[in-house]
Amino acid sequence: MAIPHLLRAAERPRARNLGVPFDGTPGPLDAITDVRGVEVGHSTIIRGKGALKVGEGPVRTGVTAILPRGQQSDRDPVFAGWFSQNGNGEMTGTAWVEESGFLEGPVMITNTHSVGTVRDAVISWRVRRGAPDQTGYWWSLPVVAETWDGELNDVNGFHVKSEHVEEALSSARSGSVPEGNVGGGTGMICNGFKGGIGTASRKTSEEGGGYVVGALVQCNYGRRVDLRIAGVPVGREITGRSPREDDSGSIIVVLATDAPLLPHQLKRLARRVTLGLGRMGSISGNGSGDLFIAFSTANPGAAKTTGVGSPAMLPNDRMNPLFEATVQATEEAVVNAMVAAETMTGANDVTVQALPHEEVRRVLRKYGRLIESQR
Amino acid sequence: MAIPHLLRAAERPRARNLGVPFDGTPGPLDAITDVRGVEVGHSTIIRGKGALKVGEGPVRTGVTAILPRGQQSDRDPVFAGWFSQNGNGEMTGTAWVEESGFLEGPVMITNTHSVGTVRDAVISWRVRRGAPDQTGYWWSLPVVAETWDGELNDVNGFHVKSEHVEEALSSARSGSVPEGNVGGGTGMICNGFKGGIGTASRKTSEEGGGYVVGALVQCNYGRRVDLRIAGVPVGREITGRSPREDDSGSIIVVLATDAPLLPHQLKRLARRVTLGLGRMGSISGNGSGDLFIAFSTANPGAAKTTGVGSPAMLPNDRMNPLFEATVQATEEAVVNAMVAAETMTGANDVTVQALPHEEVRRVLRKYGRLIESQR
Amino acid sequence: MAIPHLLRAAERPRARNLGVPFDGTPGPLDAITDVRGVEVGHSTIIRGKGALKVGEGPVRTGVTAILPRGQQSDRDPVFAGWFSQNGNGEMTGTAWVEESGFLEGPVMITNTHSVGTVRDAVISWRVRRGAPDQTGYWWSLPVVAETWDGELNDVNGFHVKSEHVEEALSSARSGSVPEGNVGGGTGMICNGFKGGIGTASRKTSEEGGGYVVGALVQCNYGRRVDLRIAGVPVGREITGRSPREDDSGSIIVVLATDAPLLPHQLKRLARRVTLGLGRMGSISGNGSGDLFIAFSTANPGAAKTTGVGSPAMLPNDRMNPLFEATVQATEEAVVNAMVAAETMTGANDVTVQALPHEEVRRVLRKYGRLIESQR
Amino acid sequence: MAIPHLLRAAERPRARNLGVPFDGTPGPLDAITDVRGVEVGHSTIIRGKGALKVGEGPVRTGVTAILPRGQQSDRDPVFAGWFSQNGNGEMTGTAWVEESGFLEGPVMITNTHSVGTVRDAVISWRVRRGAPDQTGYWWSLPVVAETWDGELNDVNGFHVKSEHVEEALSSARSGSVPEGNVGGGTGMICNGFKGGIGTASRKTSEEGGGYVVGALVQCNYGRRVDLRIAGVPVGREITGRSPREDDSGSIIVVLATDAPLLPHQLKRLARRVTLGLGRMGSISGNGSGDLFIAFSTANPGAAKTTGVGSPAMLPNDRMNPLFEATVQATEEAVVNAMVAAETMTGANDVTVQALPHEEVRRVLRKYGRLIESQR
Asked: Domains in chain B, please, with CATH?
C-alpha cells in the first residue's frame, strides 16, 4: 500500500516510498512531530566551495532544535532519560537529566566543535525571553549534542553563530520535518553514503495504549560494509568508495513519546535505540559517539516546585509496545536520513554520494524484500 | 533534654542517651520503624565456643529482615533506588531495582557466605504463601545483602538455614528495633569495636512536609583510627586493639521514607548515605562493601500492571530536608549500632570489645561535645 | 564451503551447517573455548514427567559453569566488565566486578530460583579446594546468573543442589561445548522455540591482532514474531504456537577474549552484545533479564596484591575488530542454541518445539540467504 | 609545628596556618601541583561595581585551567575517571572520559553560563597549536565544568571570552597555586562565606608507595548552618547572614595523583570525594552540582593508538592510602578555599563576607581542636 500523505509531506521520497519494508504502524507524518507538541527547527549553513581555509570555509553545517513542548519547552520541563551506547561524543546537560529526571528545554544538535557556542546561545535565548529566571540558576544546563562533519565542513572554523541557534529555535514548528542535508545534519556521512537528519514514528495499538513514539536522528555513523536495510546486506551489494571508510562517525538519537513514562522508564526507552542500530548492522565503533535521549510530553507541569505532584505513569508491564516502537522508529529514521540526503560536495571538493535509490530497490528485490507496490 | 521514651523503648542506652549530640529531630522511636508500615525481624544464631571447626562452629551470625509494607511487602512493591559507594559486597536483586524502580519484597541482610541460602529461602517463603505467583516469574529476584563476620563466626560453615530466614520474616514487627548483636549483625565489627545492627530516624519540619526518613545499618566497616563521633576523633582517643585492624569490613544501609519519591529520587537519597559515613570518618576502604538501598512506603499500589497510575511525587526542589535527614539518620544509626553492641567472644576465642560508653563520654566531654544532661 | 571439523565436533548440525550465513571468521571450534584456557561444564537434570507437583518435578533444569582460566580460575582472577541491557534478571557478584575490575572465579548460569544454591555452593567448592583463603574475605562474591524455566521445569521445587554445581565445575573442559538442552539451558525457550545453551567465536584478522572473542549464551528470550535469522524474518514465516507468547524470557551472555583489554574496555565489549541481539530482532522486553559479562584471559597474575603490575592493554583505537567479533559471535551463538536444542516435553506435558531446521532452510532460501553448499 | 614554607608559598595564611587540625601528610606545597607535571592557571575578571546591567557588569568571574601534563596535556592523555554526587551542574566531555578511560586535555572550570565559550575556545587553542589534529576528530571533547556566580557576577552577560581561556591556559604553571577569589572561583560563595579556588595534597607513606594525591576545588556549595571544620560545628557558632541561604551552589573537585591507577580505579578515587565533603557537613543539596574528576599522571604514552601498551597498575589492595589521601585533601582544599577568599562586593553591591579567621580560631579553641602553635 502506498502512503500518499507521506509523498505529499515530503517532496522527496522517503524510505517506505522506495519500498523498504518496515514493521509497525507509523503516525500520520512518520516523524517525531507525530508526538503532539514536539517542534523541530533547522538552521542550515552552506557556503563556499573548493579548498579548505580554516575560518573561511567551505561551510557545510548547521543546527537542529527539538522542542519537546514547542515554545513552552523552557517553561514546562519534560521527564527524560538518556543513555550512552558509546561515549565518543558530547551531550551536554546530561548530569542534570540523570539526576533530576527532567529535560528543561530544547535538545540541540550541531557539529562537534560548535557545541559550546550553541550551548551558551541557548542560555542567551532563554534569558532574552525574560521569564522566570528570577532564581537565576534553574536555567543553565542546556542539552546540546553533536556529530563530526570535518570531511565536508570547515569544522575548525566555528561557523555556527548564535544567530543560527536563534533561527533553529524560532523556526521550529510541528508538521513534517525536513530530512537529509539540513540543520545539524548538513555535512554528515552515514554508512559511507551521505547522512544527516532523519525521523520516523510508531503508533502503538489501541490495546497498547495508542501511544506515539517518534525518533529523530542525526546520522553520521558506520561503515558501508556493515549497512543492512530491512535485514538485507545492502552495503555489500553497492560498490563504490566513501571519503570515510572507518567507523569514526556518530549518531545522536532523540526519542519523543506521549506515553506517560517516568524518568527511569525513559532511560529504558533510550537503551533500546541500540537494538534499532543493531538491525542496521552497526557495531558502535570506537570513534562513534552514540548518545540517545528520550523524553515524554505527558505530564505537563511535572516540574512544579511546590506541593506534591501526581504524574501519570504507565506500568512497566505495559512498556513492550513502546520498546518495539522505539526499535522500529530508530531503524526507519536512519534509513530515512540516508534516503533523503543528497550527494554533497564540500571542503577540498570532497564529494559524498547519496544512497542510490534504484540500487537499494534492486538489492531489496534480489533478496525478496522489496515492497513493489510502493511505487 | 532526656528522651524518656527512648530509654523505655530499648533496655540499653542508645547513643543519644549517652549524651552524643546529633542534629535534627528523630521520630518517636528513633528507628526505621518510625516509617509507618516498615517492619523489622531478626534471627540470631549464637552457638558453641572455642576453636573453629568448619561446619561445626562456633556460630555468631544471623539474618535481619526489613519489610517495607509488613506482611504485604511481597504483594505491594515499593519504589526504590540503590547505590554502591564501594562494591566489595553483594546485594542481589539490584539489576531489577535499577531497571524497574521497584523493590518487590523484603530486604534481607546476613553474612557474606549465606546470601544464597537466604535468597532462595525468600523465594520459598513467597511460594509457600501462595498468592499471585500465577505468572510465575514476577517473584524471583529477592534483595539480599551481606557483610562478613568471619573473625567471630564460622562463616564457611553455612549455618544460616531456611528456618532462620523464616524466623526473621515471620517475627518482623513494627515498634522499637533490637540493635547491636542481633540478626545479620550478630558477629560484626565496626571501627575496631563490636558492631552490628543500628537504626535511627529523622522527621522533617512541617514546612518540610513532616516526612520521616529511617535508616537501618548492618555495620561492619572501618578502622578505629578513623572513627569520629559528632566530629570528635574518638577512635584516636580510645586505645586498645581490635582483631581487625584494616578497613576490610562493610556496611549495608537501608533507608525507608514515607515521602512520595520516585525511583530516581530514591537513588538520590541512597547516594547521600556516603555523606553520613563521611561524618563518621569513613574512607570506604577497598575491602568494604558499602551498598545502600532506599525505598518509599508512599504510593501503595504503584506496581499495578494495568491502566495508568498516578503516583504522588515530591518535587526535587523539596528534597533537601530529606537529604539532610538521610545524612543525619545514617550517622546516628551507625553510632547506635556500636553503642548497642556488647563485647563478644567467638571462634577461636577471638574477642571484640564493645565501644566503652564511659570512654566515649569522656572524650566527647574533652572536646566540649557531650550533652551532659542526657544522663 | 562446508566446515567438516564443526560437524565432527558436534554430533548435531550447528547453524552454519544448515547454511545460515554469518559474517566474520570463527575460531576452530566456533565456541567460547576457542579462547585458550576457557573451560565449560554442564550439569543437566532431567527427571520425571506429567503433572507438576512442586518439589517433586518434573525437572528440566541444570547448571552451566564457565571457567575463565580452567581450574586456576579462582586463584588467578581475570579482568572483567558487565552490562545490563534490561535488568529483569539476576547476576550476583557484579558490584565487585564493577568496582574491582576483576572476575574472581567462574561464571555460573542456572534457573532463576536456584541462583542462591549455586552461589553458596561455589563458595563451598572454593573452600573445599583449600588454598589462599587465609585472608578469609577475598573469595566471597561468586558470579551467578539465571534465566527462568518455569514452563517446563518445577522451578519452585529447587532441584538444583550443590552436587550439581560440583558436577558442572569439575566436568568443565576445553574443546567443543555441548549446546541446546544442557546445563542451565536445559529447560529454556527462545523466540517461541526450544532454547538453551549456544556458543560461537570469531577470530580477528592478523592486522586486527588475531585475537579471539567467544560468546556463550543461555538463551531464553524473545517472541517468535520478532525472530530474524541473518536478517530474514524467520519467525513470521514459520507458523505454530509456543507455550510462551510474550517477551518474558531472558538471555545471559558470557563473552571471553584473549585480547588484552582493561576492565573499562571489557565493559565496552559487553555493551555491544545488544547490537547482536538487535540483529536477531530482539526488543529486550520488560520481562527479559538481558545481562552480559565479558572477561579477558590475557594478563595472568593481574590481580596480584603487592607491588605494581603492568598489564597489557590494547589501544581503544584497535578495538573495532573486537566489537565486530562480539556482535557476530553473539548473533551466531543465539542461533546455535536454537539449532541445537531439541523438542522437549516437561511439566504438565507442556511441549516446546525445536526450531525446524528444514523450515529455516526453506525460509532462508526464499530470501536468497541460504548457503546451499553447506549441506 | 608551624610550616614555614607554606607561609612563604602563599602570601595569605592557609587553613593549617590558622591552626586547623588536619590528618595526613601534605606534599611540599600542599597543593595539586605537588603532583609532578600538573600545572594550574587562572584568568580572573573583576570589573565594574554597583547596579547590575546585563552585558555590562559588574563582573566577578573567570576561568581556571588544570593541565595534567602541563603543555603536553593535549598530546599525551592521562587515565581518568569521574563521578557525579549530585548532577545539578555541567562537566562536558565526561561521556568520553567514561568510555575511553582518558582525559585528553586540560580540565577547565568557569561560571555556569560560560561553559560553552570555554569549551569551544579550548578546541580553538588546540587547533592553533597545530599538531596531531590530522585525524581531525580525536580532539573535540574538552572537559569544562562550572559553578554559578550569579549573586556577585553578571553571569548572563557572558563576560568570559576566548582570550581569558587562552590566558588561563598559557599562564598555567607548577608551583604554589593562587587560591580564593581567582580564576573560575572569583565570584563563588561557600557555606555562606566567600568561596572560590582551594587546593591541598597528601603524600602516602613510603610503605603506601609514597604517592601524592592533590585536590583542587572550585567551592561554591553549602549552607552556613551545615559547615563543620575539623568536625567542629563552626557554621553554627559564627553568626551573620549570607546573600545565599539555601544549598544551591555547587562544587567541582579535580583530583590528581601520580599513583599508577587505571580508569576504573580513578573513578573509585573520585567517588571518595563525597566522604571529604561529608566531613565538612555537606548534604549535597538539590541545587548543588557536585561533580568530581580524577586523573593519574603516571603512564605517559598510555593513549598510544598502535601496538599493545603495558601501563603500570597499582593493585586494588594497595589503594586504601590513596582513598584516605583523597578524603583528607578534599577536606583541606575546601577549607583552604574559604580561608583564602577575601570579602567581595559585586553586582548590586551585594557583599559576601570572608570566613573570619579569628572567629574560626576561637571556635576551634572552644572545642579543643585548635593547634595553637601554628601561629
From this structure: 2-303+311-374 (3.60.70.12)
